[in-house]
Amino acid sequence: MSNSINLENIRNQIQEENALFITNDLQEFLRIPSYSLNSNGIEQAKKFIINYISEFCEEINIFEHKINPTIFTEVKGNRPEKLLIFMMYDTQPVSKEKDWISPPFAAEISKLNPPLKKLGDCIISRGAYNSKTSLMAFLNVVKILKRENILPISLILVFDGEEEIGSPTFREFLNQNKENLKQCIDCYYPSAKQNLDKTPVIKMGYKGIISLSIKAYSENEEPHSAFSNIIANPARDLNIFLNKLYDETGFKIKALAEPYKYSNSEKVIFENLIKKINMDDVINKAGISQIIDTDIKSAFLKYLFQPTFNISSLKSGYLETGYKNMVANSALANIDIRWANNISPEQIFNEIKGKLRNFIKKSASKFDLKYNMGYSGSRVPLDSIISKAFLKTCKDMNLEPEIWPLSPAAAPLSIIKTKLKKDFIVGGLGIGGFAHAPNEFIQVSSILNSRIFNLNFLNNYSRLLK
Fold first, then answer.
1. pLDDT for 437-458, tens place per residue?
2. DSSP character for 444?
3. For the chain, which residues make up each domain, given as ranges?
4. 154-160 and 70-75: which strand pairing?
5. Which of 4, 156, 208, 285 gives the lowest tally of CB atoms within 10 Å of its CB?
6. H/E run at residue 345
């Protein structure tokens, strides 16, 4: 009985302090330009987090990597069992700044353009949705619970500073701390995962991903294009090779050419989901204005389960104003591939490497192939403790969650599944969108529920362990 009274007191505190939390904690954190390759911004964000959690953590560990450090600490609760909390403090860089309603690191409160103007006041900021708001909302609740001495379960907090560049050293961090992290029962990644109609979303798995860079080059300068038939042409050769991986008929990579085989549970979850999914909300939140498949079921099926072949950048030749007839001496393609199949990134990389090895034998251009990052996909069962705690918390807050069989995205937490054999959930309340795009936002009125959700979730998870 006393526990429920305490929880009600905490809910009241959360509500009373919400405006101060937004102004003093959240907006201050959002104003730090901690995009992954901005070392000054990363350092500021690191210091901000350390200062914030030092109020309730006894020992804070910093694991330095080649790029950005991982912050790691333990928070003792009223139960010795531990829940691993994964968070990220880096963000995407800013592009197309002229398209932003307000400066991307000003964290100003404004209204979005239609059709999202109906959301009312939103904080416009890089990282507002993905995922600094969720990080601060969770830490704030932990701070309050520790202050009142009623944190229901012990926590291990991990703050990744390289998530937006694929967490290249996260695997190394797990290896160094494997025995400590294995003590955790499950893993939770606090995120703002509500649809525009306030429906919370829970996704029962993530796709695998691999990121590659392929460079073609020659020893020539950049001569007149009249010579293009008798010298190496890296731009042309790179495009020819890319068509050996993927063309208008689909994947040429054997591991990804086979159709995905759905499990029975995935079929059931998908059929239930497609009856109520609002694809317009999905694309509006992502800042998409056009899709190529007008059949909603077909589009959503592809979105969830089909592998993707994406060229994020393709660079070569004369890129200044006007044109110049010359033969480029180098060409670069950055590629990412995502898949639902039960295969490893190493399997895909080895097949691409084999194809390139054969292609080079007949090509005048030279090639470099670079493996940037990758991790396998993962699944979490609906009857796991972490899933049950999430679903119960939604129910307690009178919300019916939307259950997805799989996320079209990839997450480094998949390494936790493979390395530590722990289930993980990514989710929580909060309405936001435009991750990786101009005018990334979080709806101001949804922030309170995000904090209350964290309180209820920790309490429900602790109770379910009994």
1. 999 999 999 999 999 999 999 9
2. G
3. 2-204+380-465, 208-260+306-375
4. antiparallel
5. 4
6. helix 345-360
Whether the link from the prior residue into 115 is cis, omega within 30° of 0, is yes
Q: Is 321 exposed, middle or buried (0-12, 13-18, 19+ CB in 10 A)?
A: exposed
Report the predicted TM-score, pTM, of the whole model to 2 decimal places: 0.86
Distance in angstroms (rounded) separating the CA atoms of residues 135 and 191: 8
- Spatial separation of the C-alpha atoms in residues 170 and 65, rounded to whole Å: 9
Q: How confident is the model at residue 3 (pLDDT cuts 50, 70, 90)?
A: very low
- Cβ atoms of 438 and 287 within 8 Å: the answer is yes
pLDDT in tens, 37-75: 999 999 999 999 999 999 999 899 999 988 999 999 999
Tokens of 404: 């997805």
CATH assignment, 2-204+380-465: 3.40.630.10
Exposed e or buried b per residue across 432-462, where buried means at least 16 C-beta atoms within 10 angstroms of its C-beta: bbbbebbbbbbbbebbbbbbbbbbbbbbbbb
DSSP codes of every residue in 1-38: -HHHHHHHHHHHHHHHTHHHIIIIIIHHHHTS--BTT-
Which ranges constitute the DSSP H helices of 202-334?
234-245, 254-257, 264-274, 279-285, 296-305
Structure-token pair, residue 406: 């799989």
Identical fold between 2-204+380-465 and 208-260+306-375: no
The per-residue pLDDT for range 339-376, each reduced to its tens digit, is 999 899 999 999 999 999 999 999 999 999 999 989 89
Instruction: State the pLDDT confidence band at 225, using cuts at 50, 70 and 90.
Output: very high
Would you call 110 exposed, middle or buried from its count of C-beta atoms within 10 A (0-12, 13-18, 19+)?
middle
Q: Which CATH code is given to the segment(s) 208-260+306-375?
A: 3.30.70.360
Q: What is the DSSP string of 113-134?
A: PTTGGGG-SEEE-TTIIIIIHH
Contact 116, 194 (CB under 8 A): no
